Amino acid sequence: MTARNEIVIDLGRRRLQAVQVARSRNGLRVKRALVEAVPDGLYIDEAKAYGAWAGLQLAKAGFPRTKATIEIAREHVALKRLSLPTSEQSELPEMTRLALRRNLPFDDDHAVIDFVTVDRTTSSTTVLAVAVPQTVLTHVQQIAKGAGLRVERIALRSMGSAALLGSLAESSDGIGAGGVLVVDIAADAVEFIVVVDGVIRFSRAAQLPPLDDPARLADAVVTEARRTWMSYRIVEAEDADSDVRRAVVMGNLQVSEQAARLIGDMLKVQAEVLKEHPLVDLVGQDMDSMWPLAGLLLEQNLGVESIDFARPRKAPDVSARKRQRILAAVGLVIVLIVGGWTLARRNLATLSDTVAKLEARSDSLRPLYARYGRDLYKLAHLKQWEAVDANWLDHLAYIVDIAPPTQDLVLDSWTGSLTSRGVKFDRKAKRWHVEPQMTIVLQGEAADRATADAFRGALVDAEAYQITTAGPDARSGRRLSYAFSYHLRTTAGEPVAAGPSDRQRADVQSTTIPAPRRTALTERTQ
């Protein structure tokens, strides 16, 4: 028998895996094996980009662009054993579809269903039925097209694991005989399969965290194994403990060895890591994480029924001629009656999908919108803080201008401080505002008490400040007789005062204060 080259590919979120084998009568001979990490920023949901990258990696590794078997993981499918009340092969496809679609976790109108026969009696047939959404298959085909590959078959990864264990049932060590718990550790998920005499009885998949530490990853696998075992015991209440006598772990060697030891201790069964297979010649290739892929190609050698979502089993069309005559007679009528309804239904489905996508995008963008609002308010708040400023020189010039001449009054010190009660938001005006308060402390000496009082009165009548006296005026000056200390408060950044009143003018004239002029303090500041 001439050897025939075949390719099987695993399109993973974190890794691309591919195996090329040469098929012969004695089994499979591995020619190439590829494990390539998906680069950051490349997502499997982007079918065109992912397919182009996958095609480039396959070409670099020497894989030919030909027909390929593409496997999909357990997480994408629904799997169930069904006992159907018929032994007629032609009735199985439709009966399987009707029985399985009742419990599907996704829209059964867009599901692709296939099955394999497990057991048959004179009055019933037991099948293992699997279903996958059509969107998953379409996505896989788009990636394959982008990679320059033709899809020969779309298979279930779990079936490859079952085929490997089924072919080991007659081996010398009997590793695949009886009930076996298969633990398939992939790049981003782990699959647990209970295989009894080469047939899947139970299956479960779980996502794995992106860990690089083999010990921690093994602990995560064991945690999911414990959950799987509890689920299996509930489903197979009577046979769970008696069926499984052995566990086989496949995957990264470091992780698999640690997980096998822990699972064996937990289940009290013999657990081992699959490192070789009598029907698979590795030829030095590393197949630790790709054994199920080889198992999918091994199904043909074993002569067992296989799952193929690209070409699912369909009921034979025994009434094709009669149906064609009926359709020919009433076809035009049906088109006229239901054509508009069909078009409307399709448009409604398209719009519903669009609405769902837009709602999902809206949900994903809502936190960004809220963050934008918070940042906008923060920016307005900060701008208000930055806007709080005082023109101290104008205030100083204003006070100096209304002060008496230097022979009558001397300013010893001028201290300014700025305080604020915070930034507030005016809901009615819908704007931020801040009310800073300026405090100026004036200390000086006057020739007499009347001059000091006249200067204070001029400041009061100018209405630019709120003035308080820090202490009683006293004869304590060093240069002039009377020392004074005034506290001036205002909320204006620049001094704005009303025109001088008649009393102000009279007071200034009575105390011989001339027109505004520069004082000694003003001259020292220049």
How does this model look, in words?
39% of the residues lie in helices and 29% in strands. With 526 residues, the chain is an alpha/beta fold. The chain has 13 helices and 18 strands. Helix 4 packs across helix 8 and helix 5 crosses helix 7. Among the domains are: 103 residues, Nucleotidyltransferase, domain 5, CATH 3.30.420; 70 residues; 134 residues, Alpha-Beta Plaits, CATH 3.30.70. The radius of gyration is 44 Å and the shape is elongated. The longest helix has 68 residues. Strand 6 and strand 7 form a beta hairpin.
> Which CATH top level class of one domain fits?
Alpha Beta
Bulk shape? elongated
Spatial order of the strands forming the largest sheet: 8-4-1-2-3-14
| CATH topology description of one domain | Alpha-Beta Plaits
Mean pLDDT: 81
The total beta strand count reads: 18
Q: Unreliable stretches, pLDDT < 50, 5 or more residues?
A: 498-526
Question: Counting H and I runs of at least 4 residues, what is the number of helices?
Answer: 13
The profile of the biggest β sheet is: 6 strands, mixed
CATH hierarchy: architecture of one domain: 2-Layer Sandwich
Query: First CA to last CA: what distance?
Result: 108 Å
What is the radius of gyration? Answer: 44 Å
Which structural class best describes the helix and strand composition? alpha/beta
Question: How much of the residues is beta strand, in percent?
Answer: 25-35%
Proportion in helices: 25-40%
